[in-house]
Amino acid sequence: MQQNEEKFCRKIQSQIDDDKRKWGNQALRSLSRRQQVWRIARRSPLTMIGITIVSVFVIMALCAPFLAPYPADATGQAMNLNDKLQPPSSSHLLGTDDLGRDILSRIIYGTRLSLGLGLAVTLFTGMVGIILGCLAGYFGGKVDEIIMRVGDIMMAIPYMLLVIAIVVATGRGPIKLILAISLPWWPWYARVVRGEVIQIREKFFVEAARALGASNRRILFAHVLPNTLNIIIVQVSLQIGRAILAVAAMGFLGLGVQPPQVEWGMMVSIGRTYMPSWWWMASFPGAAIFLLGLGFNLLGDGIRDILDPRSLTRA
What we know:
The chain has 315 residues and is mainly α. Helix content is 74%, strand content 0%.
């Protein structure tokens, strides 16, 4: 008798749990896509931290002239040798550098260049890698062999060594720096996209489009590429942080943008010669690089969760 009661209670509880999951999922699906995204993002504290960090730096980049307390110190129009190497204080919250320039102002203005170059590198690399990956995965054969073997050769060479060689060969400047960082990077994107395209090209809707006489270009751009957008968006969001670190590394080595332009890696390179006595010169720009890279990594993880179809059933 007791066993029957326990079995009955378990059955009722199971039905209640099923109803909760069912109605919860139906309620979630009834929301707009924007509401769904926001609801899933709020469930992850790390995603919200990433969104906050990235938003703060984007605002800094867009509003630099209004946020920087000493704009002239960041644009190369002023030097205050009487105030050089001042520690953090009420007048200079993050201290001053070896030329008396306000470090906070330079970090705020440096956000424009560091973030802009990182985004440009990611977009250019992604564009090249996505196109070549689609061609290799869809056509296969000799096209696939040529693209992938070229990619293997580039990946066999140490990345930073190849970037340095390209910069030395082509010269310095923002555009040349973007090309130098991007060119050795595209094989990574191409491999990811190629693997996804190989699976999609065998799907029924692709075969149907081919049977109806659709051209290869139409199939690629209207049927195959849209179905790879989820993985592309995730990979791009995760790689922005790496691109910013690569830009900072080149600036640290003295191969990035040159003065009077302000870039975080260059600031760290100058400040390291004053360590440890005047630690703030290198520490605060280094912290900015770390925070922005961390923010994009957390944001990328959050985007991956949002684009995961299973996130609806877990909400």
